[in-house]
Design goal:
- The protein has 143 residues and is mainly beta.
- The protein has a domain of 88 residues.
- The protein is built from 1 helix and 9 strands; from the N terminus they run ββββββββαβ.
- The strands form 3 sheets. Strands 3-4-5-6 form a 4-stranded antiparallel β-sheet, with no helix packed on it.
């Protein structure tokens, strides 16, 4: 199968929910927990979650399903969602607080986020252009 532009389709993946008692055997629910923002073929990847006070915060990356390697406007961006129960999530990408730079190492792509707490501060690591080839960033949450 190919698209109208002759390119083969990329794999489309979504963030879903699963449960495990032992961390080995998993029960998949089979439902997408983060709504699509771009279109039904939006690819979502690498969720990372942190609990701050009584709310869970998820950072993930998302992109268009095809032509994202050549067409920079279709590349990875960092998404954000929050939940009070780890089951129902509200997507609110505008609250990430990080936009593409005007130029430089993260002006075309931001991907593979990882959120963590250290010494009472919350940080977000992420890769820049070409999946991190030109650098990675460390952002600190401002409260």
């Amino acid at each position: 199968m190919t698209y109208d532009d002759g390119e083969p389709p990329e794999r489309v993946y979504k963030i879903a929910h699963a449960k495990s008692i032992d961390g080995i055997s998993w029960e998949k629910e089979g439902r997408q927990i983060i709504v699509d923002r771009l279109n039904a073929e939006e690819c979502q990847a690498l969720p990372t979650i942190i609990k701050i006070e009584q709310r869970y915060h998820m950072f993930f990356c998302y992109r268009e399903a095809r032509d994202f390697r050549r067409n920079l406007s279709r590349g990875y961006r960092i998404g954000y969602a929050f939940s009070d129960d780890l089951i129902e999530w509200t997507r609110e990408d505008e609250s990430v607080g990080i936009c593409l730079s005007e130029d430089g190492w993260d002006s075309e792509m931001q991907c593979y986020p990882h959120v963590f707490e250290m010494d009472g501060e919350v940080f977000l690591l992420y890769n820049g252009n070409e999946f991190g080839r030109f650098g990675f960033g460390l952002a600190r949450l401002e409260k």
